[in-house]
Amino acid sequence: MTNITNLIPPHGGYRKLLSYQSATMVYDFTVEFCKWYVENWTDKTNKTDETNRTYKTDKTKRPPRRQYWSRMSDQMIQAARSGRQNIAEGSQASGTSKKTELKLVGVARASQAELLEDYEDFLRQKGLKLWSKIEPRAKVARELAYKSNRTYETYKSYMSDPEDAANCAICLINQTNYLLDRQLTALEKSFLEEGGFTEKLYKSRSEQRKKQAGNW
Question: Which residue, among 60, 37, 16, has the nearest Cα to 167 in the 3D structure?
Fold first, then answer.
C-alpha cells in the first residue's frame, strides 16, 4: 500500500522565509502610512480643510476627493496584506501542491507590484520627489536590510515625513520583490526537476504495482 505520508514533504514554516518577513514589514509600514498620509491627508494649500474633520469618521458621506483617497488607502492596505498572506498560504499548500504554491507566490509578487505603483502614484500626485537609485537617502534606506531582527520599528523614523515615508516603502518593496523573484525561480526549478505531489504519487503507485506483479 502506498504510504501517502512519505510523499508529503515538510511544508509551512513560512515565518522563517525572508520574503515573508520582508512582506510583513511592508504590510505594517503601509498600514501606518495610509493612516497618516493617505486616509487623513490634508492639502497643504488648505490648512483649514473642513472635509477632513467633518467626514473623518464616515467614509460614505465624504465628498469625491476624500472618497478617492479613502479608496486608495483601502486598496494599498489590501495589496500589502495580499503580498504577505499569499506567501503564507503558498507555503502551507506546498505539501500537496507545488503548482498551487507557485501560483500563490506569483500572486504575492503581483500584489507587491501593485502596491509599488500606488506609492509612486502618491508621490507624483502630491508633487513629491521619487528618489532615484543613486539618491543617498535611498542608499541609507536600502542598507537597513542588513540589520538583524528587522521590524516596522526599524523604518519608523521615516514616517515623520510623507516623501521620506513613501520612498522608504518603495525601497522596502523593491527588496521584497527581489526575494520573491528568487523564491519563484527556486520553486520553478524544483517543480521541473522533482515534480509535485501528483507526479510523486503516480511514481509511487507505479513502483507499488511492479512490486505486486513481481510477487505473482
Answer: 37
Q: What span, in angstroms and rounded, lies between the C-alpha atoms of 53 and 55?
A: 6
Question: 21: which 3 cell numbers?
Answer: 518577513
Q: Which of 203, 2, 183, 176 has the alpha carbon at shortest distance from 91?
A: 183
Residues in the chain predicted with pLDDT less than 50, given as ranges, are: 1-5, 43-55
Query: How far apart (Å, rounded) are the C-alpha atoms in residues 190 and 95?
Result: 13
pTM for this prediction: 0.77
H helix runs in the chain, sequence order:
4-7, 18-33, 50-54, 64-93, 98-125, 136-143, 152-155, 162-194, 197-214
Show contacts of 83-89: CB within 8 Å, 24+ apart: 83/23, 83/26, 83/27, 83/108, 83/109, 83/111, 83/112, 83/115, 83/176, 84/20, 84/23, 84/24, 84/26, 84/27, 84/108, 86/111, 87/14, 87/17, 87/19, 87/20, 87/23, 87/180, 88/14, 88/20
| d(C-alpha 207, C-alpha 19), whole Å | 37
